[in-house]
């Protein structure tokens, strides 16, 4: 049973419009969701724990009376890790160790320099005090996501990482708890939705107020994060996941088909695109897709994704392929080519670049080391993978010597008077030497 | 004529609540503004230049027919710079040079490392392609703001910096244009408001689409920036400006009074707070304020700001003073003390730290070097001064050797199967050696 994936030619007259249509994505802003989230956030802000308990009982089919029933302790996390089958525990710890080692390279240090007159300038870099990590419940609860969000915070030096994860019907995901233990999470509350986001943003008697909230969630969670932004920091609001595979035609087409599947299996809105200068190779991959699809557990999702948002693009040249890369600014870019290094200087926009035939995106999703939280929907044009730098912040340092202040005072005074800010000018002028 | 500034004791039983009330600030989200901005953004998105011209004529009392009439060229910018009085031009160029020198220290480089089995991991750092810089028109048009926003982008390597500045009634601010010349701005359109933000975010036939929009603006501009976030990056939405001065009592009280004025003169909502362990010194500063206020050009604004949001706080100890600093997480922190270095390790949250009696905030606002775009309203808990890093972004690099992919494949396969993502698992397994 074959599957119909659209084919495009990069030389077609309407290729630009085709790409715009293919890539267009806007999350629907539903006023119903907006209102529901506003009500929940306001209730938690004014009534604290009481509201959190109410919403948790209602939305997660729970029946608790106190916040203590909604908190797990470190022993429970450690027990989850200890209780895993050895193969899984080893894999989780190996992944955590690699992710940690990679992120150690991202830690930034304070710096300063001293000018000739003794004036000191620089930046002091400090970790955030306390971070909230949202982990979705149910089927979308990914232990790898716990590692990828918590480890950079831990490496940054964040003292307290507060995780929230809803447990609909009371069901705990042991792998998620094990990942929390492996990643150094400080506290875990089994709450979710907009109520969990509001509790983290404003604090309750039980849930401590955090400085930043990270982690994926459904439309209620995303809407709540947008709403509390400003009171706390947030990470990017992610769109559907996407991959762009660029292949020179010499990789096993089954490998490429499976790489596309690995993106498409996330959900129907996920986007998998293959670009090649070799038209025959596109045919081969299409044949592999047709043959392999019926063997996949999530074939319905994969089919919907590939038919709805997938594409096989024949590029007329390497330059065309590069233009497509930079037009898409893909979350994941797989350069399945003979000499990926030679492509690299011309790749301006991508969340993560998987270089060479061996580097399947799936390796990066779990354990290569780099973060799997990446900018989606073309936002790689202006944003970066989640990293240690997202859990550090900077304070400018300025310490003027008497001589330095005198010289700077003259410049500042002139400019301040040009802006009609005379208190600024006079404050600077006090520091000018007679 | 004396002025009434509130006095607080850090040991008071209700000090926490007092601080919460003093610091509370929320920007009002007005549904009228929201609707007006939505309409403008949609019109510009669908009708492009035509809508931009319409809104500009309507809101800025202009009468133009083509976009060409709304663009300035490089010669006009250079002429503005050349035409300044020598003192002003020298001050502007001196400030630009210092800001540039400081920001050169912030540029980040790509990095990579190779593991024993040949696997390469790293991050590629690239500048954004094109950035939009919003500059308010009329009285709030600050040339220093042009330098502070454009120079970090320029240092980052951004190829095209597109500035927009409304010119109500056709009036051009020569200092602003001169600053654009000094800062390396590429193109200038004399448009403003939500229509300018929309044009930058989505592009029109004339205005190129940018990747990020920075710069201050009124409530329409701020609302529009929030709305287009996602399509483009944006900087922080700033609240009112604030300063916290901590003084050991040995600085000239006139200097401290003027430093407080320099913040208060921005607008009625600006916040200036003085903390000292010396109650007598608070009295001396109050006396200086009473004496100096009548000599200030903007005394009405200063009075409203100090009476409405200012405070003189008597701290019982240095530890108390430090707790107040970290509670406020001030945009500007002036440590007007004998040994500011000894305070630094305990200061966890501040946008910029002005150390020592000579380092007036005004020096940093204009020409010390560090950026004057700083996190307000306590957001220094999780965010940083505007910097070169805001105009660079990162792409993760992963290049697995055959051996590396084989080992990683085993770990990824185990974890993927734990998450029921079997396409991920099989994609990884293809790379495992037999």
Automatic annotation (TrEMBL), chains A, B:
CDD domains: Histidinol_dh
UniProt pathway annotation: Amino-acid biosynthesis; L-histidine biosynthesis; L-histidine from 5-phospho-alpha-D-ribose 1-diphosphate: step 9/9
PANTHER family: HISTIDINE BIOSYNTHESIS TRIFUNCTIONAL PROTEIN, HISTIDINOL DEHYDROGENASE HDH
One GO MF term attached to the UniProt entry: NAD binding
Annotated source species: Parathalassolituus penaei
Gene: hisD
Residues that bind Zn(2+): 263, 266, 365, 424
Gene3D superfamilies: 1.20.5.1300, Nitrogenase molybdenum iron protein domain
SUPFAM superfamilies: ALDH-like (SSF53720)
CC terms in the record's Gene Ontology section: cytosol
UniProt protein name: Histidinol dehydrogenase
Cofactor(s) of this protein: Zn(2+)
Catalytic activity: L-histidinol + 2 NAD(+) + H2O = L-histidine + 2 NADH + 3 H(+)
Family named by the database record: Belongs to the histidinol dehydrogenase family.
Top-rank taxon, per record: Bacteria
GO BP annotation list: L-histidine biosynthetic process
Entry keyword set: Amino-acid biosynthesis, Histidine biosynthesis, Metal-binding, NAD, Oxidoreductase, Zinc
Keyword Zinc: yes
Binding residues for substrate: 241, 263, 266, 332, 365, 419, 424
EC nos: 1.1.1.23
Job of this protein: Catalyzes the sequential NAD-dependent oxidations of L-histidinol to L-histidinaldehyde and then to L-histidine.
